[in-house]
TrEMBL record:
InterPro entries: MCP, MCP_dom_sf, MCP_transmembrane, Mitochondrial_Carrier. The keyword Transport applies. GO terms for molecular function: high-affinity L-arginine transmembrane transporter activity. Pfam families: Mito_carr (PF00153). This is Mitochondrial basic amino acids transporter. SUPFAM superfamilies: Mitochondrial carrier. It is a multi-pass membrane protein. Belongs to the mitochondrial carrier (TC 2.A.29) family. GO terms for cellular component: mitochondrial inner membrane. It is found in: Mitochondrion inner membrane. The keyword Transmembrane applies. The lineage of its organism: Eukaryota, Metazoa, Chordata, Craniata, Vertebrata. Solcar repeats lie at residues 24-112, 119-209.
Length: 240
């Protein structure tokens, strides 16, 4: 439910930010992606808080929450707005740079792979670029995600253990060593590739055939209409 709104927000903000920056450069791709990542935290943080609490609660009649909205309502009733946004700082620390890497990597990879309309390998190339971008994005900030998840689960069973982000990092490292910050990485990357491959490929193909190609020289000012990579007729997700 949350990802529907998140993806709409992310691709829209990224495209508008890139046009506002004026030029389609690697730095601007990163900045536009980072802006999109930061803004979508207003949805992402409460959504992941509810997901974490639901996954950790007891099953059967002993369960505390009936669903995502009931979970958020209960948290709001007990802790207010601050409780619903628990882990916001760590979510911002994760999402801002990771989405910058996400869009930068996709832009670089689609150019390097020569993704062109009419190429019989277009869809496989887009899937490869999207999936690889998702993996690089997660690798760039995964330790922050571990800390965020621990903060959002803190207090679910018993008294809260952590005083904040730094305290969580300190206690986690002291108790379990540096490997704690890579826990669950393999399963996350296995999920990241197909999810992001499908997301980027779908958005790019739909834009390409719905709006048509608009190739432009490298470094030229980004037009109001949908833009494509240098030397390519392929519409990019940033054209949203």
């Amino acid at each position: 439910m949350g990802l529907t709104f998140i993806n709409a927000l992310v691709f829209g903000v990224q495209g508008n930010t890139l046009r506002a920056l004026g030029r389609d450069t690697p730095l601007n791709q990163f900045l536009a992606g980072a802006a999109a990542g930061a803004i979508q935290c207003v949805i992402c943080c409460p959504m992941e808080l509810a997901k974490t609490r639901l996954q950790l609660q007891d099953a059967g009649p002993a369960r505390t929450y009936r669903g995502s909205l009931h979970c958020l309502a209960q948290i709001y009733r007990r802790e207010g707005v601050r409780g619903v946004n628990r882990g916001m700082a760590s979510t911002l620390l994760r999402e801002t740079p990771s989405f910058g890497v996400y869009f930068l990597a996709y832009d670089v990879l689609t150019r390097a792979l020569g993704c062109e309309p009419g190429d019989r390998l277009l869809v496989p190339k887009l899937l490869l670029a999207g999936g690889t971008s998702g993996i690089l994005s997660w690798l760039s900030t995964y330790p922050v995600d571990v800390v965020k998840s621990r903060l959002q689960a803190d207090g679910l069973r018993g008294a809260p253990r952590y005083d904040g982000f730094v305290d969580c990092v300190r206690q986690s490292y002291r108790a379990e060593g540096w490997r704690v910050f890579t826990r669950g990485l393999a399963s996350t990357l296995l999920r990241a590739f197909p999810v992001n491959a499908a997301t980027f490929a779908t958005v790019t193909v739909v834009l390409t055939y719905a709006r048509g190609p608009e190739p432009r020289p490298d470094g030229e000012a980004v037009p109001a209409a949908p833009a494509a990579p240098s030397g390519s007729g392929l519409a990019q997700p940033s054209s949203l």
